[in-house]
Amino acid sequence: MLDAGNNNQIPTLCRADHEPYGSDFPGKSHTGRFSNGKIPGDFLASAYGLKDLLPAYADHAVDYKDLITGISFASSCSGYSHLTALPLGVHNLDRQLWHFELVFDKMRKRFGLQKTADIVEKALFLISAGSTDIVNDYYMQPLTRAKYSLPSYIQMLLKNMEHFVKKLRLAGAKKIAVIGVPPLGCLPIDAFTNIPPFKNESGDPLRRECRDDHNSDAQQYNTNLATRVKKMAEAMHDLKIVYVDYYTPMMNMINKPYDYGFKTTTTSCCGTGAIEVGPLCNVASLMCHDHSEYVFWDSSNPTEAAYKIVAESFKDVNQLTNSTCQNKMEKNSHLPLLFLLLFISIKVIPAAAAAARPSAIYAFGDSLLDPGNNNKLPTVCRANHKPYGLDFPGRNPTGRFTNGKLPGDMLVSAFRIKDVLPAYADSTVDVYGLLTGVSFASACSGYHDVTAAEVGVLNLDKQFRNFERAFVKMEERFGLPRATATVGNSLFIISAGSSDMIDNYYLLPTTRAKYSLPAYHDMMLNNLDTLVKVRKLYKAGAKYLAIIGLPPLGCLPLDTTVFSQSSLSPSAAPQKNANLTGDLLRRECKAKHNKDATEYNAKLQVRVRRLMVAMPKLKAIYMDIFNPMMEMIDKPNQFGFKSTLEGCCGSGSVELGPLCNVASVSCNVHSEYVFWDSINPSEAAYKALTNNFRARPLRRLFPSSV
Known about the structure:
This is GDSL esterase/lipase. By secondary structure, this protein is α/β, with parallel strands linked by helices. It is built from 23 helices and 13 strands.
């Protein structure tokens, strides 16, 4: 009813971005609207003098002008129950609200917080849901009917509706219209998808009459909805909220079609008029000749002609505004509106499982994920100076230990959450930024507290305490349910261990005296357990966790430099893997240290599996960084690299942090180097790593969105 095309980029059957949908839309475009032309959101936007059409949030042509005059976040096949959206992989209400929050954040950055808040306060928010819940979830799912009686199912839906309205209120909404359900028993598909079949006197399955029992269910729902909305209006004095009748105008058209110019009311224009919807209504379907004579376009959704009448009947919406919407849809430009359109139309399509995208990304660990949390710490482990950041947008040295973006930035962009993953310590990050993800990582940190203490950076315990502070801020602004839901749908990433091995174990004789290498690995993994299981992430509500292993330590330029002489190696015989020239700038990988990394990674994979056994609600994956890095080093030409064992910065052997500075002579073509400094990869290498993460391990967590 209100989805203008938000499902077009989703891997779901619930899409209408193909012919014959849109046959009467301007330009005959199949935009994703489930009708032959415009839908109620378009008519209302035009009626209030805002613009001719209400675009989809997912429309790439949407600009800032559209954001302040209204867009639709609606997703066909969604509903008040999350189980309604889940089988088809469409956006549930929480996802739609999150998209609105992203829009709010964009507007805030462009226009300022006060102006954005004023726009939202004056805006009209429309919510339409319930039909798909009842038809797809209740009528067609025996398990749902076994769990709920119809009255109790209706109360569950209304409870979710009220909970959602409260979230909108927290987000600043002041004017909300909640639309009821249509006469469900009159939908052409209804008689075909319910047993026993209901036949009219002629017995013609293509000319069914309305099902009185399902219409009665719809009326029962609407009565309860109207009562609940009235109580909410009385309880929340700062909120104007009304119930909008969808049932009556539809029944008027069906009972008295000639009064509205219709001839056919119980079959649809597309195909047989009985079952065609979504992919079944396609270019091969036989179509009616005069679209305007039909109430229904497909077996679930009205025609443009019917939708126009429905939109004109929404007089109760005028109670919320300072203007009116006349029957002829006269334009009025006195009211700025932002349409938040959530739900939409009824679709009966076979279920297809699909995972949602993460709401946010929260990162912990070391330099691989640190966008600048060390910038204000009294530590030498900082990268907030040139030449770091030379290829970052704006050429800014943000504190990222590379020339451009990090894997966290690339992942948050790939999931279409935002462009970059900021540091928690970034002063420009507000509560809306927290809601979509930040990094708490601190370069030079590790699983062992001694590793961080050596250089005065944040250990994992301090990083988690910062996450707890962020959660409190989100709870205070958006409420506990919203904050908890965000955490539960977020991706948590941990990258640590490299500094533990190089800076602590290899370089500190006291550590090697205390631990054998296997015992040191076990200590690191036990600390990982503590972070995830004992008192940390899992108890905070984390459900999706990715843990990154160690890279090939023996191939890091600094490692081959520091441990080039056998006398410097704490755990190896004289090395045979140094090249014959002895050139510090052209070292070969140190096999022993690579072996140490592979042994740790093997143990880490076992520990990740054990974490999932111990915590059934947790989905955890191991992300391999060792093998992708080795592929780049062994087969550089396949990735566009020319130099694999030297850093781009300075001599390429020891420069890191303060030693990689504005006086360092850097390489000419940054993208030809696997490493940026003597430890950290270049942006080009990080991009190859991130693509590998997305193509392989992350598919197990979010198969439909990577």
